[in-house]
């Protein structure tokens, strides 16, 4: 009985420690729709083959689809990448011809080898998206954070669980490095994606996203922030689960006592 109670209390304590603070998430995690902002030219990142890429070399000829995340993310990033690959396949956009596509890793511990492995995985899974011509990038933390900050992508590293908290979205950037539009979520409509690329090619600044979508990771797409209501609900759910476990142990102990 004591052992069961100890396990239940440990579960409750672990849940309390792991639960994200809503105020911190609201401040540190999100996507700011910095439309009209010009991205820096001189930052240097690394391609998946370890060659160095100055950011301005990515631009100039065509629009760029820019996504942030991390390669070993167990949650949102793979859903986001898959959503982009499907949309590219269905939109008719040709990477390297109509548009450049870049995924920038936010975890400085990940290098070109990790990026290359993920690129091969998605190239095999989405052959019509021509993922081999995408740019799977890594870089020094200062460079990546500077790029993310200018774009408006805010993220937070949680040491307790060794994961990054971040929102899901896609920046559509003009050939002159200007953020033309921001598409939020983990799924992208192929026609809307193609239209956004066309607008970026004309150096247009799109209107901000206004619609509220219900997505699997429960954040507000109008702000790119995690829903504080959902965060609190998950905290309550974790406590309720532990309390339910305690109640179950107590009932089992009572039954055992009566039989004795």
TrEMBL record:
Q: Which cysteines are joined by disulfide bonds?
A: 73-77
Q: Where is the chain membrane-spanning?
A: 230-250
**Which stretches make up the Thioredoxin domain?**
13-202
What top-level branch of life does the organism fall under?
Bacteria
* GO MF annotation terms: metal ion binding
Q: Which residues make up the binding site for Cu cation?
A: 73, 77, 166
Signal sequence span is 1-18
Note the PANTHER family from the entry.
ELECTRON TRANSPORT PROTIN SCO1/SENC FAMILY MEMBER, THIOREDOXIN DOMAIN-CONTAINING PROTEIN
Q: Which UniProt keywords apply?
A: Copper, Disulfide bond, Membrane, Metal-binding, Signal, Transmembrane, Transmembrane helix
Read off the Gene3D superfamilies from this record: Glutaredoxin
Please name the InterPro entries in this protein's record: SCO1/SenC, Thioredoxin-like_sf, Thioredoxin_domain
> What is the protein's name according to its record?
SCO family protein
Against CDD domains, the record matches this protein to: SCO
The cross-references to Pfam families, in alphabetical order and at most eight, read: SCO1-SenC
Instruction: Please give the family membership noted in the entry.
Output: Belongs to the SCO1/2 family.
């Amino acid at each position: 009985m004591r052992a069961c109670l100890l396990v239940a209390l440990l579960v409750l304590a672990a849940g309390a420690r792991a639960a994200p603070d809503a105020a911190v998430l609201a401040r540190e995690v999100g996507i700011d729709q910095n439309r009209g902002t010009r991205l820096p030219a001189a930052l240097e990142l690394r391609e998946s083959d370890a060659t160095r890429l100055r950011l301005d070399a990515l631009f100039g000829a065509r629009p760029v689809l820019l996504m942030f995340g991390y390669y070993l993310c167990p949650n949102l990033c793979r859903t986001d990448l898959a959503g982009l690959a499907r949309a590219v396949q269905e939109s008719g956009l040709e990477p390297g011809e109509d548009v450049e596509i870049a995924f920038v890793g936010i975890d400085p511990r990940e290098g070109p080898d990790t990026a290359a492995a993920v690129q091969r995985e998605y190239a095999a899974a989405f052959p019509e998206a021509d993922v081999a011509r995408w740019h799977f990038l890594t870089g020094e933390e200062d460079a990546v954070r500077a790029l993310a900050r200018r774009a408006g992508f805010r993220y937070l590293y949680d040491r307790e669980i060794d994961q990054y908290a971040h929102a899901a979205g896609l920046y559509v950037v003009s050939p002159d490095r200007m953020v033309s539009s921001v598409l939020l979520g983990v799924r992208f409509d192929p026609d809307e994606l193609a239209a956004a690329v066309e607008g970026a090619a004309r150096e247009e600044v799109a209107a901000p996203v206004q619609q509220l979508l219900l997505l699997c990771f429960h954040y507000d797409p109008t702000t790119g922030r995690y829903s504080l209501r959902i965060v609190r609900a998950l905290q309550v759910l974790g406590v309720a689960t532990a309390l339910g476990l305690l109640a179950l142990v107590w009932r089992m102990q009572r039954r055992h006592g009566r039989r004795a």
